[in-house]
Amino acid sequence: MKIKSCIVISLFILLIGHNMSWAISPINQTVIKDAQKYGMSNIQKPLTDFLLPWVAYEEQANILNATTESAYLYTPYLLIAADARDKALNQQTVKLTDTEKILSDYAGYLVFSVTLYSDGPSFMDDYQIILRQEKTTLKPYQSLTNPVVKSPWHPQNPQFMSQCYFYFSQKTVNLTKVVSLILITGDKREHRFHFDLSKIK
Predict the structure, then answer these.
(1) Alpha helices (H) along the chain
(2) Model confidence at 26: pLDDT above 70
(3) How far apart, in whole angstroms, are the C-alpha atoms of residue 33 and residue 20?
């Protein structure tokens, strides 16, 4: 049974190494185990601390607190680690099939999650979003924007917030350099988040 499991794992690693493109670095058995270990060994950390290596704050933020706008880059490593953390918290077993599904769902994309705040409820109307790296500018392959809702501080500012998800094809992105995620919201504000891809697992 152990031999059969090893063969299945080896075939899976071989397939993903040849047929799929990953956001930051090639995924192999060592990386998967390391990501799972990170997830399971950090279950006591608050989620914000757990996600810290993958976060970028809005470049003009004066202070870092709960109201600071932020963006997360969901790399394969983070997705595997987060799944392992969730399974550990719920006392469930981390399975290879779960890892396979997670990776296949995000293969070939840079996926960002962005939290934005504003004092007005219509700030996400007609927003624009691009990913820029040197002379390359990409528009998202897919955008998922949750409805604007009242913030935890309402009626104090910022009164409203929105959670967005953006998928960009990584084909023309250099994974060893900085990328900038740039949003211009309907209230004419520009929001910039910078990620040094060479330093992100």
Answers:
(1) 2-19, 29-41, 47-50, 76-89, 96-106
(2) no
(3) 19
**Single-letter residue type at 71:** A
| 3 state SS of 42 | coil
Q: Give the span between the Cα atoms of 18 and 8, in whole angstroms.
A: 16
Peptide bond into 147 cis (omega under 30): no
Domain ranges across the chain: 2-199
Residues 6 or more apart whose Cβ sits within 8 Å of residue 117: 67, 69, 151, 158, 160, 161
**CB-based contact 73:56 (threshold 8 Å):** yes
Report how far residue 150's alpha carbon sits from residue 160's, in angstroms, rounded to the nearest whole number.
4
Q: How far is CA 50 from CA 33, 53, 81, in A?
A: 17, 8, 9
Report which of 75, 80, 79, 74 is spatially closest to residue 95, judged by C-alpha positions. Answer: 80
pLDDT in tens, 103-142: 887 888 999 999 999 999 999 999 999 999 999 999 999 9
